Structure prediction request, 456 residues.
Amino acid sequence: MKVEQIYTGCLAQGAYYIVSEGEAVIIDPLREIKPYLDRAKKDGVKIKYIFETHFHADFVSGHIDLAKATGATIVYGPTAKTAFESYQAKDGEVFALGKIKLKVLHTPGHTLESVCYLLMDEEGKDHSVFTGDTLFIGDVGRPDLAQKAAHKTQDELAGILYDSLRTKLMTLADEVLVYPAHGAGSACGKHMSKETVSTIGAQKDSNYALRSDMTKEEFIQEVTKDLLPAPAYFPENVKMNKQGPENIEKVLKRANHPLSPDDFERLANETGALVLDTRSALKFAESFIPNAINIGIDGGFAPWVGALIPDILQPILLITEEGKEEEVATRLARVGYDHAIGYLSGGMEAWVAAGKETDQVDHITAQDFAADASDKKVIDVRTAEEFGKGHLSNVENIPLDGLSNELSHLSKEEKIYVHCAGGYRSMIAASILKARGFDQVVNIEGGYQALEKIDK
Prediction:
């Protein structure tokens, strides 16, 4: 028996590859299926099942393409209805895989169809449980995301989740391993740990939502407290996962279309495409195409795309580092942004060489800013939680994901200084401000981390 967690950091997502006696199962696969096919080919095994813990909201699954490529059966939990061929498992149903077995535990609450898969080893002993978005390390799934589909309130779903945890998961042996679908950084929970594996016993000891003396009313109150608004793309991803997304190879072929500077400019004007610059914040600041939005590929790329580009059907033109074109298109497709229509061949160097117009973002070091910080308009784009833990005096907190809704009270005639924790989010904010006509934008290098060191 082999159990492998395939963790994707930019989505804080864990898929799983399980093998026994020449047969394999994939749990919660990402959209690009080649890594799973490569593993199966290398091990000389056949992928028999594709297990989905629920209809994912934060990414598009690869279940359709993987099933077509392997002949594997797609398995969902009870009540799941799909527009494609799939198998709706019953609560308690057992699936054989080589010499091991996987048992379906119906655990509604995050969504009504949510299930966990309990793995029983060759001796029939409970070995591990794959908990999807029902149980995380340090947290549990949000009960607010499926309200419309479930025709229930978030409090009702939280109450159902309370019962699922206590009747299905907390009754398992303490040594059973816990493998969740997400870790820290995912918008699917509030207080998830950076750890990506734990045990039932450790979670009963440390997870706030699994306290043995917790009443259902206390659980509902704590789990629904301080939930941030869900990103706008979440329901769109759910719809794609229920209906079956477009083949990813077609999506990547459409995006992997090199464009000369003239063709890039023409297509931007003809289609109204959003120009997405995925280079580093430093390179973007030095020179960029006017009105381009910067979301760097080396940060929390996919979640920020989802948070800041409300329409997944929006045509997108890409500016990337050389050789990163397909990676960027793949990361966009992971969260349902399938309408990238090409990239700038030769990058910004080609744009500049063609004599096209460029813009830049002014910057100031933390030291120079701190030397004369009085009477400056400063925006801190960190989250309200980060801001509450410490911030500069006389600054305005406008979290990045809400910036576009707060521009009306900002003056385009005033110089605006922007910072986040380290610089990634503040450059995104600066690009948004510049694109909206705020020409006097200054990025504070190193963000609050650098400013805090000066104060100390």
The chain has three domains: 2-235, 248-280+297-353, 362-455. The mean pLDDT is 96. The longest strand covers residues 13-20.
